[in-house]
Amino acid sequence: MIDITLLGTGSPMVDPNRAGPSTLVKAGNAVFLVDCGRGVLMRAAAAGVGAANITALLLTHLHSDHITDLSDIITTRWVTTFVATPLPIIGPPGTKAVVEATLAALAPDISYRIGHHADITEPPSIQVHEYTEGQVWDTDGVRITVAPTDHRPVEPTIAFRIEHDGTSVVLAGDTVPCASLDELASGAGALVHTVIRADLVQQLPVQRIRDILDYHSSVEQAAATAARAGVGTLVLTHYVPPLVPGQEDQWRALAAGEFSGTVEIGDDLHRVSVG
């Protein structure tokens, strides 16, 4: 069994009811945080998970809305817990530079806390691993594989396939349809995919917002990806524009036109069990 919790189903468009993009995946004894948008630790706490419980942080790409709370995760895990092991952060090339820049921005805070607390003698311990494809994790019966996606001009971007005890979940991040995602998701129990309502975005008056049509999958495109890959369940997240309560069936119907499997859509903390 793999449990998926949509911690944040929002987007760069601020929504008071939705945290930024982030998904929690529990596989065996491991807890993986996929992306870390605004408010992620608040949502994780509501799901019963603290910073100390995170086995690894997985980043699909380095767009600001997907890493907004990186500094909060680093600081909270370091200051409020007694976790001795480093935090693994797995992401595309460029992740190390972002983490180093975040630590540099936190340098005053780090020095204050080391100076104040006798039991804090070292800065946060982090191990960054950069990948674009291949197996990136194989521990305690959990295996993670990475493949490139297409979110150009944002590149490189990656998707993750998490496997445990015969069950698999794929987390696509932001992307347009691409063969590498189809291959990674092939036969998976679930595909967690970010989506936009192309029909609604096209009606928005601001060109900058309409530009997102170039490099995000519509609901229909995400559903077509799930169909081609033969996944069991499609989990939609990162709703643009923000999902209005009561309109879930509209989004689900658009997906159902391309995909005959189960379509999951919901608010922050929506949970899906696979396996």
Automatic annotation (TrEMBL):
Domain of life: Bacteria
SMART domains the record matches: Lactamase_B (SM00849)
InterPro entries: AtsA-like_MBL-fold, Metallo-B-lactamas, RibonucZ/Hydroxyglut_hydro
Sample GO molecular function, one term: 3'-tRNA processing endoribonuclease activity
UniProt keyword list: Endonuclease, Hydrolase, Nuclease, tRNA processing
Record flagged with keyword Hydrolase: yes
UniProt KW Chloroplast keyword: no
Residues of the Metallo-beta-lactamase domain: 19-216
Name by which UniProt lists this protein: Ribonuclease Z
